[in-house]
Amino acid sequence: MTPAQYTSMVEMLIKATQSEKLIWEDNDGDFSTIIDGCSLLIRSSYDFSVNISTYTLKMFNKNGAEFESFSYSENIDIHEYQQLNRLYNVIRDKYYRITESENTILQNLEKMTESPLLETNNLPF
Q1: Each residue of 72-85: pLDDT tens digit?
Q2: How many CA within 13 A on the CB side of residue 54?
Q3: Distance (Å, rounded) from C-alpha 105 to C-alpha 90?
Q4: pTM above 0.85, yes or no
Q5: Looking at the DSSP assignment, which residues form a beta bridge with residue 35?
């Protein structure tokens, strides 16, 4: 896979996930999906000994054999790292319905904290 194909693939994964055309499963913080029998897995990891975050995207054929793996750290290959970070966060957002839940919470809090309108007839003057 060429670098351009890889970049295009990750962007398409992001778009398909955002539009909920691609559904991911959570496996203890790793997310996986299947596209026409081929599997993809994305993993986030953090190495506390060197304080470095890494994302890994693995691809498997229809027989379950891994044939490609892309791994990018925040201090090396920053563009690729940011792209996988974005994919991971879009997946996580859709899977856990984070944005949807945040909006529900905010909307309901706004309703709870709205000041009632003063009725002009009940003013003492």
Answers
A1: 999 888 999 999 99
A2: 15
A3: 20
A4: no
A5: 38
